[in-house]
Design goal:
alpha+beta, elongated, 11 helices
């Protein structure tokens, strides 16, 4: 399947959509679950949620117009107290962006990190210092640069690279500490593997496909649905081709479909050729159930 692009559509979208360089700050929702923490420790954490939100909201993560913000959600689930003012947590990181001429938004990032250990003291302010590793703020920096990089990639091909490089720099600092989560993993998710793949030439086609999927696909649905669907199929084909040369344990491709599987199934609900669901399953077998259910509704 090939991607068909209309020069007129792209010119129009370039004129009306915000430039990726204008996406500078984070419109962040921070939700914290303290249920697993003993009552005696909860008072020490009463300012934690607000401190994290303030740290993330009041910083310019990119360059350009700070009025245009990337929407992001951070759900933090405290797991245990592992020392004096020291905690372990699991975190969901999600981001979304608007679809052109639509009341709907599309998920761009959906990541779950189960290995965060950090120190938090309510009397110590959270400060930005990219030259010094901090097990709390460096974790937050890493994911905000990831979110920004992913968002930039959806508007202009591979334009998230400078932000991914910043995330890679943070990951390098973390890796040197030997702390959990920053080290390469033999299975499952790891920050190190994700950023290494995002910076690897092997996965550049997947990042390029993100632009085709969002900009010439979803953003074009209101202009020409048939053409937009062809472009989305072309983007999935780009990922299918990249997958042939990728380690089966890869994180980048799996993360893409974690965010997009349900959307793919829904977008093609009225597509004349239901075999697209067989194609999606061949590229993304982890979400076969979603595609099978959509195919059954299609009948």
């Amino acid at each position: 399947m090939t991607t068909f692009r209309s020069a007129a559509v792209i010119v129009l979208l370039l004129l009306v959509l915000s430039s990726p360089l204008s996406a500078q700050q984070i419109d962040i929702t921070v939700l914290v679950n303290y249920e697993a923490i003993p009552t005696t420790n909860k008072d020490l954490l009463r300012d934690f949620e607000n401190d994290v939100k303030t740290y993330l909201s009041n910083y310019n993560w990119g360059t350009g117009n700070p009025a245009d913000k990337v929407k992001c959600t951070l759900n933090i689930f405290f797991q245990s107290v592992i020392g004096d003012n020291r905690y372990s947590a699991q975190v969901f990181i999600g981001s979304q962006r608007e679809i052109f001429k639509s009341a709907q938004s599309t998920a761009v990032v959906r990541l779950f990190d189960g290995l965060w250990e950090f120190t938090y003291m309510k009397t110590r302010p959270l400060n930005h210092n990219l030259n010094t590793y901090d097990d709390l703020t460096s974790f937050l920096d890493f994911y905000m640069y990831l979110v920004m990089g992913y968002d930039f990639d959806t508007y202009e091909k591979l334009s998230g690279t400078p932000l991914f490089q910043k995330a890679a720099d943070v990951a390098s600092q973390g890796r040197s500490t030997g702390q959990k989560g920053w080290q390469p993993a033999t299975s499952g998710y790891s920050r190190a593997q994700l950023i290494d793949e995002l910076m690897s030439p092997t996965f550049q086609p997947v990042r390029a496909a993100s632009w085709h999927y969002h900009f010439t696909g979803l953003d074009s649905l209101s202009i020409s649905r048939d053409r937009a669907c062809k472009n989305i199929l072309g983007a999935v084909q780009m990922i299918a081709d990249a997958k042939k040369n990728a380690d089966p344990r890869n994180v980048v491709i799996k993360s893409f479909f974690e965010a997009k599987a349900k959307e793919l199934a829904d977008v093609f609900a009225d597509y004349p050729d239901p075999s697209v669901y067989t194609f999606f399953t061949s590229v993304d077998p982890n979400h076969q159930q979603a595609y099978d259910e959509a195919r059954n509704r299609h009948k």
